[in-house]
TrEMBL record:
<feature type="binding site">
    <location>
        <begin position="185"/>
        <end position="190"/>
    </location>
    <ligand>
        <name>NADP(+)</name>
    </ligand>
</feature>
<dbReference type="InterPro" id="IPR036343">
    <property type="entry name" value="GluRdtase_N_sf"/>
</dbReference>
<comment type="subunit">
    <text>Homodimer.</text>
</comment>
<dbReference type="InterPro" id="IPR036453">
    <property type="entry name" value="GluRdtase_dimer_dom_sf"/>
</dbReference>
<comment type="similarity">
    <text>Belongs to the glutamyl-tRNA reductase family.</text>
</comment>
<feature type="domain" description="Quinate/shikimate 5-dehydrogenase/glutamyl-tRNA reductase">
    <location>
        <begin position="171"/>
        <end position="299"/>
    </location>
</feature>
<comment type="function">
    <text>Catalyzes the NADPH-dependent reduction of glutamyl-tRNA(Glu) to glutamate 1-semialdehyde (GSA).</text>
</comment>
<protein>
    <recommendedName>
        <fullName>Glutamyl-tRNA reductase</fullName>
        <ecNumber>1.2.1.70</ecNumber>
    </recommendedName>
</protein>
<dbReference type="InterPro" id="IPR036291">
    <property type="entry name" value="NAD(P)-bd_dom_sf"/>
</dbReference>
<keyword id="KW-0521">NADP</keyword>
<dbReference type="InterPro" id="IPR015895">
    <property type="entry name" value="4pyrrol_synth_GluRdtase_N"/>
</dbReference>
<dbReference type="InterPro" id="IPR006151">
    <property type="entry name" value="Shikm_DH/Glu-tRNA_Rdtase"/>
</dbReference>
<dbReference type="Pfam" id="PF05201">
    <property type="entry name" value="GlutR_N"/>
</dbReference>
<comment type="pathway">
    <text>Porphyrin-containing compound metabolism; protoporphyrin-IX biosynthesis; 5-aminolevulinate from L-glutamyl-tRNA(Glu): step 1/2.</text>
</comment>
<feature type="site" description="Important for activity">
    <location>
        <position position="94"/>
    </location>
</feature>
<dbReference type="InterPro" id="IPR018214">
    <property type="entry name" value="GluRdtase_CS"/>
</dbReference>
<feature type="region of interest" description="Disordered">
    <location>
        <begin position="415"/>
        <end position="451"/>
    </location>
</feature>
Length: 451
């Protein structure tokens, strides 16, 4: 059952926080963060999305105050000004925008939808996905897919890797044609950066990674000459590159100032790591220009302007799907209460039917025929259906009008768990309270036969 919970969320993102704030907020893993949230009192569901540009956490709790209290514990290490809080409706709409790419550094970038899928799987394995977040996250993935198939939101620069390439190309006279590039990291971001550098005309792309076989796989996908090396080889190869893009998952910097201070050769270094892959002191070297995630704004702003029309189309999709999402919650909530109501009524009906049949059989001195039983049960079914039709209609109307007070009251009145505490049959109580002659008047019903 979906329950009466509400979604509350908190986030630290590139939109209002710096690289270091995001690094401070980043959990050990998405799964671990979900597991931690589920230990908080009254948290029913949890979902955490952690990327190089955002850390977002969503919880389902009985009310927003409970949800916020749990999230405050998770984000306590981050400066208050860097954390953005959202209530139920805003959280849901924001999640749709994230999956659609409208909240990304590079508007419309494709990686985010895969990252949402992985976060969903991580949360599911940790027990954080229940009915409410299942509906919300799968809806967000659906919106992300629609945005990319029905609009031009992901044409052109579609990743931070391609944005890094564009930034480096702006800084080098003549662009990247004929250059040597070094990519540190062979994960998704490194792979995209290598492809983008290849497409931009780099003559050679070297990929350095802790696991060389992974780097070799990235190189094999490129048209340019390439080489795959281990991270320990950075000392000897970094001086060959005019462009360096660092995108690893390392906790500590993998590029120090000493790696880059080999000679007076001009180098452009783009640090896509979160936390930083390049030691901040490298920026002080006279021959080295270092850019980090905060510096990509110039490229991403151009992309945002170019995709303004497509973004408007995506907003229209989000508006449509957001209404459908809220309607889905309303229908589900109303259907749960209606099902509980009918379940409760069914238990009462069965109890009263069995009592009535027992009394009829006692009065006529033998078992009722199948036809007689069917008449009794049909009458009871008809009574239940007619009596519950008006409240069923009212509950559906209450859901459509956001009258959750009526919905929750009805859920309490018709709680399926009420069964074990149900009173004895009303017919039994009535029989015990009436004189014997009066109770025997029911015996006339026993004359009913198959005709």
């Amino acid at each position: 059952m979906m329950g009466a919970g509400v979604v509350t969320s908190a986030r630290v993102t590139h939109d209002g926080a710096c690289v270091d704030d995001i690094a401070d907020a980043s959990p050990e893993s998405q799964s671990a963060a979900v597991a931690t949230l589920l230990t908080r009192p009254e948290i029913e569901e949890a979902f955490v999305l952690s990327t190089c540009n955002r850390v977002e956490a969503y919880v389902v709790a009985p009310d927003a105050a409970v949800g916020q209290a749990a999230l405050e514990d998770v984000f306590e290490v981050v400066d208050d000004d860097a954390v953005y809080w959202a209530d139920h409706d805003e959280s849901l709409r924001h999640l749709l925008r994230v999956a659609a790419g409208l909240e990304s550094v590079v508007v419309g970038e494709d990686q985010i939808i895969g990252q949402v899928r992985r976060a969903y799987e991580d949360a599911r394995r940790s027990g954080g996905i229940g009915p409410m977040l299942e509906t919300a996250v799968t809806k967000a993935i659906h919106v992300g897919e629609r945005a990319r198939t029905e609009t031009a939101i992901n044409e052109g620069i579609v990743s931070l890797g391609s944005a890094a390439t564009a930034l480096a190309a702006d800084d080098i006279d003549g662009g990247l044609e004929g250059t040597t590039a070094l990519v540190v990291g062979a994960g998704e971001m490194g792979r995209l950066a290598a492809r983008s550098l290849d497409d931009a005309g780099a003559n050679e792309v070297i990929v350095a990674n802790r696991t060389v076989s992974h780097a070799d796989h990235v190189v094999s996908e490129l048209a340019a000459d390439g080489d795959a090396v281990g991270l320990e080889a950075i000392d000897t190869i970094v001086s060959r590159a005019e462009v360096v893009v660092a995108a690893t998952g390392s906790i500590d910097p993998v590029l120090e100032a000493g790696h880059l201070d080999a000679d007076d050769r001009e180098q452009v270094v783009v640090d896509l790591g979160q936390p930083r892959d390049v030691c901040p002191t490298a920026a002080s070297l006279p021959s080295v220009t270092v850019y980090d995630l905060d510096d990509l704004e110039s490229v991403t702003e151009r992309t945002r302007e170019q995709r303004a029309d497509a973004a408007a189309d995506v907003e229209a999709i989000i508006d449509e799907e957001f209404v459908l999402l809220l309607d889905q919650y309303k229908r589900t909530r109303a259907d749960e209460v209606i099902a509980a109501m009918y379940e409760s009524a069914e238990r009462v009906k069965q109890r009263e039917v069995e009592t009535a049949i027992s009394r009829l059989e006692a009065n006529q001195g033998g078992e009722l025929t199948d036809g007689q039983r069917e008449i009794v049960e049909s009458m009871a079914d008809a009574l239940v259906s007619q009596l519950l039709a008006p409240p069923t209609k009212s509950l559906r109307e209450a859901a459509a009008e956001d009258d959750w007070g009526t919905i929750n009251t009805a859920l309490q009145l018709f709680d399926p768990e009420f069964g074990p505490e149900s009173p004895v049959s009303a017919l039994e109580s009535e029989s015990k309270s009436k004189p014997e002659s009066e109770s025997e008047s029911v015996s006339s019903f026993g004359a009913v036969d198959d005709d």
